[in-house]
Specification:
Layout: E1 8-15, E2 30-31, E3 34-35, H1 36-46, E4 51-56, H2 60-66, E5 73-76, H3 84-94, E6 100-107, H4 115-121, E7 130-135, E8 138-146, H5 150-156, H6 164-169, E9 174-178, H7 191-197, E10 199-200
Parallel strand pairs: 1-4, 1-6, 4-5, 7-9
Antiparallel strand pairs: 2-3, 2-10, 6-8, 7-8
Helix pairs in contact: 3-5
């Protein structure tokens, strides 16, 4: 059992954005009757993440009422309006378990993500790794950040570009893993894509 505790990974689901282009917060997205954030938690659990952190922001109280977040550590980013960088910092700050070697980061608005893709990206869960999934040669999610990179990522994480400044500064260390055959890397950020994937956003309560 001691060996089973080596190279443990966490999953981080970024679900804080206001979703202006889709008519409501990403964390409220539903596919049929199921909140998409629950689907993402299922995927990360199936992939073998030892711990899951969900970073909420916009409509956080409503998300907690409509989704089952009991299997995750929930972090509320009050500064969600400043962009994804603050959500990454909040999520990393919540990973206080020294036994976690790396974290797999995904956005909630990615309904085509699969556990196979997460496992493929997380196949090298070491503290010094940086891994990005690629689709048609372009980098996307999931991304794997080894623990030794967390402080640097948190320091450089910025506005809507997230970890990009750190990744650009360490581009020679990134391992690219093709995930075209095992997942859909599309992010749902338009009403047209919402319709394509059968997604809806329930009305947001005033004052939430």
């Amino acid at each position: 059992m001691e060996g089973a505790q080596l190279n443990r990974i966490a999953g981080m689901i970024i679900a804080a954005g206001g979703g202006r282009r889709i008519g409501g917060p990403e964390a409220l997205l539903h596919q049929g009757e199921k909140p998409l954030v629950n689907q993402m938690i299922d995927t990360m659990t199936e992939a073998g993440c030892d711990r899951i952190v969900v970073v909420l922001g916009a409509a956080a109280d409503q998300v907690r009422e409509t989704a089952d977040l009991t299997r995750a550590t929930v972090v509320v980013n009050r500064a969600w309006g400043t962009g994804v960088g603050s959500s990454i910092r909040a999520g990393l700050a919540a990973l206080d378990d020294d036994g976690i070697e790396a974290v797999v980061v995904v956005p909630v608005d990615m309904p085509g993500l699969t556990a196979v893709a997460v496992r493929r990206v997380a196949a090298l869960p070491y503290p010094d790794v940086l891994v990005c999934a690629t689709y048609d040669g372009l980098r996307g999610y999931p991304m794997l950040f080894g623990r030794r990179h967390w402080a640097g990522i948190a320091t450089l994480a910025s506005a809507d570009v997230g970890a990009r400044p750190y990744l650009l500064a360490h581009k020679d260390q990134i391992v690219d893993i093709a995930c075209d055959a095992v997942a859909d890397g599309s992010r749902v950020d338009t009403p047209e894509l919402m319709a394509l994937y059968g997604l809806t956003v329930p009305p947001q309560r005033v004052g939430v």
